[in-house]
Structure formats: structure tokens, C-alpha cells
Amino acid sequence: MRFHIITIFPEMFDSYLRESILGRAIKDKKISIKFYNPMSFCKPKEHVDGRPYGGGPGMVLRPEFFLQAFSKIKTKDKRKTKIILFSPSGKKFDTAYAKNSAKKYTDIVMISGRYEGIDARVQKILKAEEISIGDYVLTGGELPAMVLIDCISRQIKGVLGKYESLEEERVSSSEVYTRPEVLKYKNKNYKVPKVLLSGNHKLIEEWKKAKK
Ligand code: SAH
Description:
Structural class: alpha/beta
Number of helices: 7
Helix content: 25-40%
Shape: elongated
Bound molecules: S-adenosyl-L-homocysteine
CATH architecture of the largest domain: 3-Layer(aba) Sandwich
Order of helices and strands: EHHEEEHEHEHEHEEH
CATH class of the largest domain: Alpha Beta
Largest sheet: 5 strands, parallel
CATH topology of the largest domain: Alpha/beta knot
Strand content: 15-25%
Number of domains: 2
Number of strands: 9
Distance between the termini: 31 Å
């Protein structure tokens, strides 16, 4: 999967994408991530944002620079390319969306806004799908882009190692334990549930299902 991110803050992604499973997926070439910064298309004294027509607080990101950034993106196959623009009022992102995207596309373009958002003509011209990651308003679309990269990547074959297999394809539990068997904390003993030490796989699976 090739991710293409249009953002005025590409550095925000650095440490998250360098570490752990995603860092390994990039190294192993299971995924690639490229950044396109609309700011780099501003001439000296030009601003990437402007005052909103119709008034109101906050600044709006200007369309030309986002379209110029988009024009630099080279994808494998237009029919297998998805264009996403983040918006708190967009379609809600979920596991089914991630699964479907991992299967259907070779390239995913994500456009991250800031301030009051991006001039609406960008979405119209590119016919981008508006996607929200939840019912709250963030300061920008960079976290949403990282959420999608993370969630879609773990649906791609070979990204998760055998110790990190997909929750959706096994019995998993939100309540998990490791050593020590008995944890002492402020004069109290906290034990691991007996069933997990029993070696009885059937009982363990049943316990996990009940804990879901
Ligand atoms: N004024 C806008 C909100 C702008 S928030 C409105 O009322 O809709 C600034 C940017 O953050 C947005 O352009 C979007 O890219 C991103 N953003 C904020 N919350 C988000 C969410 N819940 N899901 C996806 N993107 C979000």
C-alpha cells in the first residue's frame, strides 16, 4: 500500500511512523508513505491560508496550494486510488472501512486540514471522500491520517508478526495478563485469573469470549 499525505505539518508524523510495527512495515516495503506540503508551493510573501468569505473566526486553507500538492502525486493505477479528505462531519471510519481499503486500493491519498479547514472546492474538484475518525473536533487532520495509516496497514498481509495477529480473526480479550502470577501492590495481592493458568484451551477461549 502506498499512502500519500497532503499536510502542512509533515514532521508531526516522524516519530510515530519510525517506531515499532509501522516502522518495520516501511522498512520491509509492505507500505510506503510520501508527504506533499502545500506550503512549499507558496511564493515568498504568499500565505497558505486566508480569511473566510462570509466572515467568522479562524483561517481557511487556500485551494490552489493543495491542488498543486495533489498534482505531484504519482499513483500506480487511478482506478485503484482512493482520495480521502478529513472532516469531523465526514463518514465515520471503522475496521470494515480499513479492511475494504486494504483489499481494494494500491494507493490512498489523504488530505489533512488545519484551522477552519480546507477551501471546499478542493473536495469538489478531487471528488474526495470526507472521512471522520469520531464525533469530536481535533486541531488538524494529521492524527486522523495516522489513525488510518495504522489501522489499514495492520490489515495488510505480513505487516503484523505472528505475535501480533489480527484480533478480528481470533478470540481476543481486552483483559490481558503477563508475569508476575501474583502482583503485590500496597499490601494486597492481585492474582492472574486461575483459568488462564489452567492450560485448558477450551475454557480459556470461553473466558476470553465472555470478557469481550
Ligand atoms: N471548522 C471545521 C473543523 C475544522 S477542524 C468544521 O466545523 O467542520 C480542522 C481540521 O482538522 C479539519 O479540516 C480536519 O482535517 C481535521 N479534523 C478535526 N476533527 C476531525 C475528526 N473528528 N475526524 C477527521 N478529521 C478531523
